[in-house]
Model the fold of this input.
Amino acid sequence: MASLPEELQVREAAARQRVEELQAEAAELALQLETAREDLSRLEITRETVTQVLGELSAAEVEPDVPAGECRRRTRRRCLMASG
Done:
């Protein structure tokens, strides 16, 4: 039979091992979380950009024809879209 100090050392070693395993798991989860956050951010930016572009395209469709002299006051793209 093991002595009390030996038993405590065994349990301490087991607890230390478990802490190290959990720290490794936490580090891996932190990496996965960072990757997921980056993916989410890219998707949010993409959605915002698509929404903006679609809004601009819709606005260009309802604008009246632009006389040639008015093109200087508008972006080239809108002027081309309005004239085409």
